[in-house]
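To whoever picks this up:

The parser on our side crashed when reading a file containing two proteins. I've narrowed it down to the boundary between the first structure block and the second sequence. Both blocks are reproduced below exactly, byte for byte. First block:
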Amino acid sequence: MILPDIAARPQASALGGIDQSDPMLPLELLELELSLEGYAGGDAGFCEAVRRAADRSGGELLFDLPAGGLIEDCRRIAVLRIPDDGNRMRVVLALLDGHGTEIRMQAPDDETAPLVRFADAFIEVLERI
């Protein structure tokens, strides 16, 4: 579930194509989150559920990792690349809650900007291969 306080956060510039003056999350992010409704698989099924949702949206799972206290009430973070309403791709985050029972989507913000920079570097490496 996208929490109102998360939806109202300004979004990081690494989201190419998102208007930072618009406080709402992009429609693509909402659609992706809706496709993850009803998830109840714990840590083991998180990566696969997010991968399937990303594939259905025309995107891809880049990587997932333990949250390590980076985001409150979050056990794991998956970094995805999904298409926006045009032909551009953007990086978004799928977060497994602290109980391992719910996945919520989040646009990167100032706290997660280093993760987005790492994802951008990861994408550059993949594109060279």
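<<boundary where parser fails>>
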Amino acid sequence: MTEPVDERDVRLQARLPAVTDIICLVRDLDPDGVKDWCARHGVIDPAAQELIVLLAAMVPADRPIDDLLAWTWATPAPSGARVVQMLRRCSCCGSELSLAQFWRDRTKPLERSYRCIGCMRTYREHGACEHPARRRDSG
């Protein structure tokens, strides 16, 4: 059985083709291609464009992508790993949701709150959990 891979890995892997494109355009000295790339990806701020070009120019040509991104992974993904979305059970509604459905809270394990975003909104508006069957008895 393969180990689960963090959601950040999935997002980084999804952006690799775009990043590879901009690196090649910068290395090929293709300013029109860089302008087109920025337009396609919605980068309209000139400072952001300059930063992207500078960062793309600084990527070492002799290093594999896995080595450059190794610092982002808690553990390296095994080759051929099956990507599994990290899930957490909401303490209010009991739904098992992806970590993206929970507010960020650095004081908690997994750096996410125990209640999902929907339950937190309801709790803040009404002062109680919407799911009475899941509430703990107060004594």
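After patching the parser it read the second block fine. The two ends are 44 Å apart (CA to CA). Strands lie at 87-89, 96-98, 102-104, 112-116.
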